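Q: what sequence does this backbone want?
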């Protein structure tokens, strides 16, 4: 079971502003807040997300093929989260919309450090 996902950052205050806005959409805030590490979520709740300056002192880099998927309830929530990301320094990786014909609805974006995320929900598949 995943407890939280950690993404590297080279600018923690910038990452904090981005993820504060994302977390607010889910109705949660910071559950851990240190000089080089911040985690958002709720103790005992759904898995959280964290941003950290790498412990080894090397620059944070983006993992090729790595993506964090944020589950929401409706296509409107997908659009809302995507719009929040764009308004807080995110970049587009695929506008919200249906993907395939199995009821998967998603919008893809990157955080200000280039980490890839998506907001998704499952809707009734076409019959």
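A:
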């Amino acid at each position: 079971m995943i407890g939280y996902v950690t993404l590297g950052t080279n600018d923690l205050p910038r990452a904090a502003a981005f993820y504060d806005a994302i977390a607010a959409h889910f109705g949660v805030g910071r559950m851990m807040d240190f000089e080089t590490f911040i985690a958002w979520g709720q103790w005992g709740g759904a898995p959280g997300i964290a941003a950290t300056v790498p412990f080894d002192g090397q620059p944070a880099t983006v993992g090729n093929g790595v993506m964090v998927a944020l589950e929401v309830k409706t296509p409107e929530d997908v659009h809302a989260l995507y719009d929040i990301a764009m308004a807080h320094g995110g970049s587009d990786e695929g506008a919200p919309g249906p993907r395939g014909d199995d009821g998967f609805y998603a919008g893809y974006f990157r955080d200000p450090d280039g980490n890839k995320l998506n907001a998704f929900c499952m809707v009734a598949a076409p019959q």
